[in-house]
């Protein structure tokens, strides 16, 4: 079953003004797993619920394949959804939960039985069919919810914060299961989460949203390396990119950028083209540095010396905080692998991988 | 859920359907009748009478409905509005004037045999007449007097009046109460049936006003109570009653057993208590007239009467039923059951209780010789009664008599004005 | 399409109930408003006339009616808190693992299932005057003979409290069930946390139980207030508004006017005033509740 | 510690017992009174003898059956109350659901109106309502005793608060699974709302069982009259037969008591879910 999903200039306004969606454009290809990610209230769930038909569109068009579905009822859209808290019908056994959508489709009894058994088999629920939802563990409930979504073989599969009620370990395990299941069934899937790690690991492509607007759609690696704006830069990655205010200057050697009171040369193989950057000379810009784009250096190789304010040891790596204010108001973070002998308050010499610098204009849009 | 909906629909249909009743046989008239569900014995009697009537002839078949006494008037008013009054109905006589004024009743004088009307006690005719027409007749009348125990009265050397004209004066009565109180545990020697419901107070204590020369309303034109109900005579009379109440002479009688348990010596009560009292004290029980407040002893009268609805299609048949109920044997059957005064001279003559020399003959004397006063024959009576009842309650609770009666008189006058003096609208 | 379908579904769902309320409550009430400006009498052959505000003017000049307003107010002020406190006490006693709880709960609830008409009759006997009256002899017993027998229902100072007592007895069980349910929904961890923080029994009650029970209490008191404003049957049967209007209430006056005196218009005017008062009280209570929440 | 706990438990039991005696004694008075010969009911009412039946005597109960068609009245009461409660659960739950969950024009305004109506007791509108049903020609039917009480603002309010507390995802899941609004309501919402249905049923039963004024106004004969009117038959001309009244009262209350005991657990759960929303 082929199904692509298209949002064309879709907007949604609520009476109280929250969770609104503005001019949302998104194309999800057949069989693709698209993750919508963003902070809470960014409109990602709204986008999903509009597609499901649980909310009505204020403006714009929603298409499945080439058909406009704005006016179709949820059941006509043939879409399945897994809810954050699973929404298992508490008064029905697992079997009846799985069979419910099929009974609504008025399928013959043998067909209902066959498909229920198939889904149960697929999700390893066969032994639990007679249990009631409240007798199941969190992971089992999650699987029943998935099963209820797939039995009807929908055109599109929607998941809304599906893993957020599970503990960390289970979350990773089920994340892998979901990805495997999606690949195996090859159903077009939209997955909503606020957790960028989940987004990066699951999505074929990831759509980052903020304040009702789409920020960037891209494959995970692209999002990480070439964020379209400061929001995406800061949101993707754990921790996100360090973004701080800066200026550009023309030097004899080429362009130079201010960093913590020092002027650094912009390397020739920088991600941004020099021709572009030249237009921003003597203007305020923002620069972005991934935490791994700085490293501890010997005093001789060092380009800057910064004061250490805090250390977080995570075992396999350490996060060092320096007194360089970011636009978010917090301090700059540097990720290091080894365990240096440093004390809070020390002046630490650092070296910057200049070619990994990102540049953004005053509005926050990336300059490439 | 579906079953539920279906059963609901079914029920609504069933409920709408139940107005259809089995068709009577050809030539038989179905007569709907309402009666009050009084005491058990009364009710059993009327049931027997109806059964006998239905069996002894085929032309008329009575279908009887009993209605609780306390809500009777509300019932009648509701049915009247709905146009659902029965052919023949019983009602408490003070409401007769209101029903007649509202145009619900048919005059009876042309429907009942003349000889029968002749045989009725004058009090029955008097109370059943409004604006010159007879609208209701009872098969019995009521009697009100003081029950006493001869032995107790003799103990305090009291004079025992046998006829209303010998009644104790109010001073004599109060002295008697004091003397009796000396002999009593708690000083409460009089039972005024304070536990009784609404209508009792107008029935039993308006004679006090009349005996003093006052009344509930000016009976010359029934247009005002002011100056009569709150006039000097009425006020003085009720001050006596208030005196008895506030000095602890009166038993509250919550258990309705003040007299039978011997707690009190005197009980201000109706004919209906005779049987119970007689059972308790046998021949020691005597009946004396109510005290004289200055203008001679007065007492209450009136009870349930039968009337015919103006909308009845078969008034003549309804009248036949009334005539049947007024046969001496039927009257006696009923008065045997409820102890009331038979409504006809013929029946009285056959009654061991009421015939001359009988223990309750005093009731007949009071009714026949004009000592009994019917309640005011005006459509305003329900309001008069409600207002006086309120005044009595206030007086019992210590409000100055003048103030209580002023208030009642004002309420009555206001009501009469609101109804433009109750002009005759429904021509007979 | 989904939107349009929902509009009609919502209306369709609500329609039967709305139609019922419209026909059987709203329309009669609007009729009442209309009638209150006339002098209509039940069953009168005289055509009703428009009399303007006469009925209202008369009502406010009528001692019985003004006393009824006062009595309703007194009744509510006393009964709502006392009954709620009693119910809370009962609920707290029952909110413990004890044997026979279900039995006690049923016993306390039992008065609720008795129709008021019946309850009132039984209490007339309890309040019987004279030394033989049940309450009188009970009080005589526990005061070691110092109690002077009273006629509760005819004493201007005791009649209203007597009716209050009956009402509290009858209604407390219902409130108790609701409060008990509220108590049982308070998470045990809160108490454990408070215990660890060193809170004693009273402090736990004051800082955990009461705030957690707040919404339940508001609900219970709101419902009780509305019910107390409807006070009628006890008065009708036990005192008929006496002594000297000491126990009359708005509803009693309304029913008296409409049914005993057949003054339908007066009854309608009382109804209108009643509605306005209760509406005011409800709005006030809601506002207070909302302010406290902030 | 152990001794102290035993002491508090003992005190608690003592308090409960004392209160239980106070709560139950008026009822006991009635039950015992119903078992006494008429003559002793009132005479002994003032003393502790009121609680001692002496020899058991069922004559009062026989009297009740002799004086009124108790079976007929009981059937009428059960039928009327049952219908009001059942139809009320259907109608009011649908309305509560529409107000809590469905989007439709006029919803907010109408809900405020429903809340305003909450406070109007029947007595207040009885007379105009009476004129109205008379116009419909409904006198002396079951219908006239049922129809006006089916739609009930308070029940709507209880359903409304309960439905507000149900997780919205259940309905959304059902809609995605292809269930329409009505089917979602019937197969998903109703089965998960037993507590509120029990609460509304019990409250409805309690309120309806004692109605007096209305059936008095709109019914004539015994055919369709409920129990509370039958008791009026006993409040007749004195002397009142107190034993009969008590016996009648006991028989009248028994059905409600059974309903409560049977639904008790659901009732309490329903009250939690509806009541705490305030």
Please tell me about this protein's structure.
The complex is a heterotetramer of chains A (368), B (428), C (294) and D (278). Helices cover 25% and strands 33% of the residues of chain A. Chain A has ten helices and 21 strands. Chain A has helices spanning 44-52, 74-77, 94-104, 109-122, 138-150, 168-185, 196-202, 220-225, 230-235, 274-278, and strands at residues 5-12, 21-28, 33-37, 59-64, 67-68, 79-82, 156-160, 188-193, 205-210, 213-218, 242-251, 254-259, 262-265, 284-289, 294-296, 304-313, 318-325, 331-336, 347-352, 358-360, 366-367. The two termini of chain A are 39 Å apart. With 428 residues, chain B is an alpha/beta fold. In chain B, a hairpin with a 2-residue loop joins β4 (129-130) and β5. Mean pLDDT of chain B is 88; it is low at 1-24. Chain D is mostly helical and 278 residues long. Chain D folds into two domains: 2-57, no CATH class; 68-275, MetI-like (MetI-like fold). Chain D has helices spanning 2-34, 38-43, 59-67, 70-101, 107-117, 122-136, 143-150, 153-165, 168-176, 181-189, 194-209, 213-218, 227-232, 242-275. The chains are: A alpha+beta (368), B alpha/beta (428), C mainly alpha (294), D mainly alpha (278).
Question: What descriptors fit this protein?
Answer:
heterotetramer, B: 428 residues, alpha/beta, D-Maltodextrin-Binding Protein, domain 2, 2 domains, five-stranded mixed beta sheet, four-stranded mixed beta sheet, 17 helices, 44% helix, disordered N terminus, D: 278 residues, mainly alpha, MetI-like fold, 14 helices, 74% helix, flat
